[in-house]
């Protein structure tokens, strides 16, 4: 039993009729549920039913003086361990993505520090619309956990993605989330991500096409699992959810300094960054001019950068250290060799020659090799890969012999 405080936001979709069943299942698990009904939601389920099954007063109106006196909307946000929105309609998702506060539910969404979970439900064309997909990506980037939607027959007669996940499955997925939440409680996790940029002159540089997504996903997963997380980022545009400390760097040397400044206080180090192995030996202070060259070819002298990961594993007192290997050939063999050579506790290996799981893709598939065994995570979103990798590392760190 996790005994969580769950605020259940109910949007205006036909599947709102399933929310009394959802509440009953949550209450049976020992959770307390306060329903927050939108005006549109109230067209599909009555507040009397919700009050009866939750055994709590249903909140609907931001301007209800009496309800606000007993628990104001800011307190409601503080009370919650989880804000679960089911069904989350296209309109609610859009309002959440752009930070509206035009009804009680949207206001509580802005006011709460709780983990936000949405279970979308809508017509398949509405779900697939580019605007909805853009909004849902924004919510994911903001750290919102998305459950479903499922594919199947829809109330409107269409067939496709957009059905709300069944209450029993929502409850199971919440349970998994609660179990994971505390696996890294009290620990400090350091993550590097993104590429580095090594200047040739003031306008040119050497870099690579790492998007930084996988490391960001690792940082989010570690944060969700209770850790205090610092993310050291090479140049990348992706936003970092609140609650994660972010340090921006450009070069391998800056990344090394940022890691070394934090490493002594870190319990686990995930080295996800695609650090440049080489940098120009000399950096021109002014733009290199083509017409000033005497020949039609040019040689750039490169020198090696420090291997940050190896510096960390050479420390006398080192954190549990996880490397990442992006390989294009002999993928497993090279990855396993890196575990030994860099003296790692674990390595996450992926094949970047496959474009559907490569650097710039949303998805990934990896093999995790530890000193006690190996396992594969088949193709799935980088967020799901991250959750599983972090959960596995949390378990291995505590009980290495059982893996
Ligand atoms: N890494 C690092 N510092 C570097 C280079 C790599 O910390 N200067 C880390 C990466 O963050 C990753 C791991 O080392 O976790 C593997 O990186 P990779 O570039 O695949 O390994 P290399 O040592 O460069 O080996 P190779 O060039 O033979 O593939």
Describe this structure in words.
The chain has 14 helices and 19 strands. The chain is of the alpha/beta class and 403 residues long. The strands form five sheets. It has an eight-stranded mixed beta sheet, with helices on both faces. β16, α13 (331-341) and β17 form a beta-alpha-beta unit. α1 (19-28) packs parallel to α2 (47-54). The chain is elongated and about 80 Å long. The model has no long low-confidence stretch (mean pLDDT 92). The site of cytidine-5'-triphosphate has 14 residues, from α12 and β16.
Bound molecules: cytidine-5'-triphosphate
- Pick out the low-confidence regions: none
Number of strands: 19
Question: Helix tally?
Answer: 14
Strand fraction equals 15-25%
Helix content: 25-40%
The N- and C-terminal alpha carbons lie at a distance of: 26 Å
Topology at a glance:
Layout (H helix, E strand, L loop, with lengths): L4 E6 L8 H10 L3 E6 L9 H8 L10 H6 L2 H7 L2 E7 L1 H8 L6 H8 L3 E6 L3 H5 L1 H12 L3 E2 L3 E4 L5 E5 L3 H15 L6 E6 L4 E4 L2 E3 L6 H12 L3 E6 L11 E4 L3 H11 L5 E4 L6 E3 L21 E3 L3 H6 L6 E8 L3 H11 L4 E6 L11 E8 L2 E9 H17 L5
Parallel strand pairs: 1-2, 1-3, 3-4, 4-5, 8-11, 8-13, 11-12, 13-16, 16-17
Antiparallel strand pairs: 6-7, 9-10, 14-15, 17-18, 18-19
Helix pairs in contact: 1-2, 1-9, 4-6, 5-8, 10-14
Bound molecules: cytidine-5'-triphosphate.
């Amino acid at each position: 039993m996790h005994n969580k405080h769950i605020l259940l936001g109910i949007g205006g979709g036909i599947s709102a009729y399933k929310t009394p069943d959802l509440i009953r299942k949550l209450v049976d698990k020992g959770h307390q549920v306060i329903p927050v009904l939108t005006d549109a939601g109230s067209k599909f389920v009555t507040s009397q039913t919700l009050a009866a099954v939750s055994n709590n007063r249903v909140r609907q109106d931001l301007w209800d003086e009496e309800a606000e006196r007993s628990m104001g909307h800011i307190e409601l946000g503080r009370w919650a361990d989880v804000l679960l929105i089911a069904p989350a309609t296209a309109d609610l998702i859009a309002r959440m993505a752009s930070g509206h506060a035009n009804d009680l539910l949207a206001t509580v969404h802005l006011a709460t520090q709780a983990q936000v979970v949405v279970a979308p439900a809508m017509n398949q064309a509405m779900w697939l619309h580019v605007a909805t997909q853009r909004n849902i990506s924004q919510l994911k980037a903001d750290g919102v956990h998305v459950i479903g939607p499922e594919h199947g027959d829809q109330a409107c007669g269409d067939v496709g993605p957009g059905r709300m996940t069944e209450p029993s499955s929502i409850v199971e997925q919440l349970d998994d989330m609660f179990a994971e939440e505390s696996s890294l409680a009290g620990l400090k996790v350091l993550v590097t991500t993104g590429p580095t940029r090594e200047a040739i002159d003031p306008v040119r540089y050497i870099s690579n096409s790492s998007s930084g997504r996988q490391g960001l996903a690792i940082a989010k997963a570690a944060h969700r699992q209770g850790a205090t997380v610092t993310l050291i980022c090479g140049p990348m545009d992706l936003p970092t959810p609140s609650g994660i400390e972010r340090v921006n760097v450009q070069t391998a040397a800056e990344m090394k300094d940022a890691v070394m400044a934090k490493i002594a206080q870190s319990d686990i180090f995930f080295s996800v960054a695609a650090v440049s192995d080489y940098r120009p030996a000399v950096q021109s202070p002014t733009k290199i001019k083509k017409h000033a060259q005497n020949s039609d070819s040019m040689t750039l002298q490169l020198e090696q950068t420090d291997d940050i990961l190896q510096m960390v594993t050479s420390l006398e007192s080192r954190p549990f250290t996880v490397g990442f290997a992006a390989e294009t050939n002999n993928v497993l063999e090279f990855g396993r060799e890196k575990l030994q050579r860099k003296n790692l506790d674990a390595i996450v290996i992926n094949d970047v020659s496959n474009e559907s799981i490569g650097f710039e893709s949303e998805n990934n598939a990896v093999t995790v090799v530890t000193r006690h065994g190996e396992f594969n995570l088949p193709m799935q979103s980088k967020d799901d890969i991250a959750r599983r990798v972090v959960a596995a590392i949390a378990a291995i760190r505590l009980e290495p012999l059982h893996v």
